[in-house]
Design a protein that fits this description.
819 residues; alpha+beta; 5 domains; five-stranded antiparallel β-sheet; three-stranded antiparallel β-sheet; 26 helices; 10 strands; membrane; Mechanosensitive ion channel domain-containing protein; transmembrane helix; MS_channel_C; MscS_beta-dom_sf
Length: 819
């Protein structure tokens, strides 16, 4: 099985290269002729093949009939559209009455959301019909080709004077193709008519949305427009309700009906949402098990809080994130549905946020929920203008009173040492004070547009702060858990690096959360759409440079595509090549992650460059001359570069060496750190990093000590005196090797008597170890042998030489006498 894993990638690559010529030849075979557009030209079927082709054609005709069957969704749209058109017409009349009631800006926004929901519903229908039309167009191309083919076949069969029975069968097939072709054309025409009707309704709905937006931007809804009399001059009597006000009262029941209809018509979206929820549940459960399995003792308090969120509140975290996804996933739902979701999100955030708030401010989150309910309920109740203003005044005074009770005295409270969330609320307090005072004063004076905005800001800023703090805590817990799992999957890791990565990712999450909160804040005060439109206009302004026309948006797209491409390649390289991320659960053979990484990175870069150039409107065909010059340069001057490049591809796909292997090439011994497309890096055991051209690794003899496995044999030479017992020495050597924890038990150590030396008995001890601990194991076992020999009194001899000095004293005396 392992052999199959190792050889399959090489076989697959070789098979593709081997088959390319044959595939190319099959695509340009002379039997297949094409016209100027590249479409195949039909021709008559040979007489000898007619019977076989008739049988195949009958099967294909049956399959075509099943393909063009009108789907249940299209039939349903066709039956529902007349009633929906009447519904839109009725809503237009209601809208006119609704607007005539001179409602506040908030309710106009709700009305716009409702019409956006109608637009999305019609767009969904149009998309379904478009899909069916495109499907039929593809089928029509094949049917037209087959119809012409069988027409030519019939005419050719008449000329060849084939038997009448065969000619009749050919005629039947031809007629079947004509009939089904006609049916598909008719269906497509019906689809086009239905799509045109839907599009007409979309235009009507879109015009209504534009009209409401224009109304919202009119002077009547200006912040400083005196919309009502001062409160002391207002009348508090309840006049008879007109149609517009009745619509306002009935909005609650209409919303409930709309929710059931939305659920009924969003079956596929609900299934996808369930899959997302399952993913969230599995992810958080996995992170919880990680924290339970591996101890987490980081010194940072925020990281500990992030861990506690997942470990102690995993179920509530799942519910909270599921509700957040629902709020984001189900767009343009009835207003009541969105309000219920926000209310449930706030309830779910209580156990996630409250434990990390200062004790004095813990109950403020319950008041935030209460204020949200008070602010929401006015959407579904009918008030006269004066009653509505009294309700707003009561709401503002209540919020102001609660805020004062929690923060007084403010200067003393501001100096308290509290957590990040409490500190954020304290710093926002003066802003909320100012907004509430403006709301109260403007309400009394009659500037109710300003009252609505300031009160919404005061209440909803707190709501979104609580929600985004909950998101921040869970996102921090998930990210910290993933990093914690990844590092603990390794045998050893750098604790400081892990801690730094956790802090850095936590900071990034905080910035993203703040950006999202700010975008929601802009949307809340109706500034997001104008800003978006402003930047859209700026980025779409055309400029001309020579023969190239571009916009600022094109330049930003160019830079963004390149940045995303290179960032993606960096992430992929980090995941597969760096060794920092554990991917053991993929169970990929050694070297395969590097090959996958290389292919994906090159594909992303190439595709990203093409997209980036296309975004600038550059015609890529103009690079033909440059490509020719580059090819000429490669042929003459870049032979070595191309050779190294191709060698790099061979190294990646054939995998004679992998990152982390211990290799020996050209008297260079070290560990492979990186395999690039032009050169590779090898770190020697002395610490030097040597850059080796890939061609050298392919063309020269290469020794890979760890290609198939990372075990190697070590050998120790031992000498003993002739007075020693060889049998005892062999036993000592085996026992010493087996007692070392680094020496492998299989293959078993081997002790050998090698020869009778000049002054010693010579032995060899061979044992197998993991490559990375070979030197240490050899040293430890050598010391163990020495200690065992000393304990048993075995002498380790060393070369000795006896020097004999002759006594020449008599020779000197004779010389002295002579003298």
């Amino acid at each position: 099985m392992q052999l199959l894993k190792n050889t399959f990638p090489n076989f697959f690559l070789g098979f593709i290269l081997f088959m390319i010529p044959f595939v190319s030849y099959s695509q340009i075979t002379p039997e297949t002729k094409t016209d100027s557009t590249g479409a195949p030209i039909p021709k008559a079927i040979k007489v000898v093949d007619i019977i076989q082709k008739v049988e195949e054609a009958n099967k294909e005709i049956k399959l075509s009939y099943s393909k063009i069957d009108v789907g249940n969704r299209v039939s349903r749209i066709d039956s529902l559209f007349p009633d929906y058109a009447k519904f839109i017409e009725a809503q237009l009349k209601r809208k006119d009455h609704f607007v005539s009631a001179n409602l506040n800006r908030y309710k106009v926004n709700n009305l716009i959301k409702k019409w956006n929901r109608y637009y999305d519903h019609l767009s969904g229908w149009e998309s379904i019909i478009n899909e069916q039309e495109e499907r039929n167009i593809i089928i029509l191309k094949s049917l037209n080709f087959q119809e012409k083919t069988w027409q030519l076949t019939y005419e050719n069969a008449e000329k060849e004077k084939v038997p009448l029975e065969v000619l009749t069968r050919v005629r039947v097939v031809w007629n079947d193709y004509k009939r089904i072709n006609k049916q598909v054309n008719k269906e497509n025409n019906d689809y086009l008519i239905l799509e045109s009707k839907i599009n007409k309704q979309k235009i009507l709905v879109n015009n209504t949305i534009d009209e409401l937006n224009s109304l919202k931007d009119s002077e009547v809804y200006n912040l400083f427009y005196l919309r009502n009399e001062p409160l002391w001059k207002s009348s508090f009597k309840s006049p008879d309700k007109d149609e517009g006000e009745k619509d306002e009262v009935n909005s609650l029941s209409e919303n409930i009906t709309g929710i059931f209809y939305y659920i009924k018509t969003s079956e596929h979206s609900i299934y996808l949402y369930i899959l997302l929820v399952v993913f969230v549940v599995v992810l958080i459960h996995f992170i919880k098990k990680t924290f339970e399995k591996y101890p987490f003792n980081e010194p940072d308090g925020d990281l500990q809080n992030a861990k506690d969120i997942i470990l102690n509140h995993s179920v509530m975290s799942m519910i909270f994130i599921s509700l957040i996804i629902a709020k984001w996933f189900f767009g343009n739902t009835p207003v009541l549905f969105g309000n219920i979701l926000v209310f449930l999100i706030l309830i779910a955030s209580v156990p996630l946020v409250e434990p990390y708030m200062y004790k004095r401010f813990k109950k403020i989150i319950y008041f935030v929920i209460l204020f949200y309910l008070l602010d929401t309920v006015k959407t579904y109740l009918w008030f006269t203008s004066s009653q509505y203003r009294l309700y707003l005044l009561f709401e503002a005074l209540l919020v102001l009173g609660v805020l004062i009770s929690f923060t007084r005295p403010y200067l003393k409270t501001r100096k308290m040492k509290i957590g990040n969330f409490g500190l954020l609320l304290i710093r926002l307090t003066p802003v909320i004070y100012g907004l509430l005072l403006v709301s109260i004063v403007s309400n009394i004076l009659g500037y109710t547009n300003l009252t609505d905005l300031t009160l919404i800001l005061s209440i909803h800023s707190g709501v979104f702060t609580v929600i985004f703090y909950g998101i921040l805590m869970i996102a921090g817990g998930v990210s910290t858990g993933i990093i914690h799992w990844n590092f603990n999957m390794k045998l050893t890791f750098d604790q400081e690096r892990k801690f730094g990565l956790e802090l850095k990712l936590m900071q990034i999450i905080r910035v993203l959360a703040f950006v999202l909160w700010f975008l929601f804040f802009l949307g809340m005060i109706d500034l997001l759409a104008p800003l978006t439109q402003f930047f859209t206009d700026v980025f779409s302004e055309p400029y001309r440079f020579g023969s190239i026309t571009f916009t600022i948006g094109d330049v930003f797209s160019f830079i963004l595509i390149l940045a995303v491409s290179f960032l993606s390649t960096s992430i992929i390289s980090y995941l597969f090549d760096s060794g920092e991320v554990s991917i053991k659960f993929f169970r990929l053979p050694k070297g395969i992650p590097a090959a996958i990484s290389l292919v994906i990175r090159y594909f992303i870069i190439a595709f990203g460059i093409i997209l980036a150039l296309s975004s600038l409107g550059i015609d890529l065909s103009k690079f033909n001359l440059m490509a020719g010059a580059l090819g000429l340069g490669i042929g003459f001057g870049l032979q070595t570069v191309v050779s190294n490049f191709v060698s790099g591809l061979i190294l990646v796909f054939e995998r004679p060496i992998n990152v982390g292997d211990t290799v020996e090439v050209d008297n260079l011994l070290g560990i492979v750190k990186r395999i690039g497309v032009r050169s590779s890096s090898i770190i020697t055991f002395e610490g030097a990093e040597v850059v080796v051209p890939n061609n050298n690794l392919i063309a020269n003899d290469l020794i890979n000590w760890t290609l198939s496995d990372n075990i190697k044999r070590e050998e120790i030479l031992i000498r003993a005196s002739y007075s020693s017992d060889p049998n005892q020495i062999l036993k000592i050597l085996i026992d010493t090797a087996l007692s070392n924890e680094d020496a492998l038990k299989y293959p078993a150590p081997q002790a050998l008597f090698s020869e009778f030396g000049e002054s010693s008995l010579n032995f060899k001890l061979r044992f197998w170890v993991q490559s990375e601990v070979g030197l240490q194991a050899k040293s430890d076992i050598s010391i163990g042998v020495y200690n065992a020999f000393a304990k048993c009194g075995i002498e380790i001899p060393f070369p000795q030489q006896d020097v004999y000095i002759k006594d020449r004293s008599g020779f000197k005396n004779k010389n002295s006498d002579a003298v």
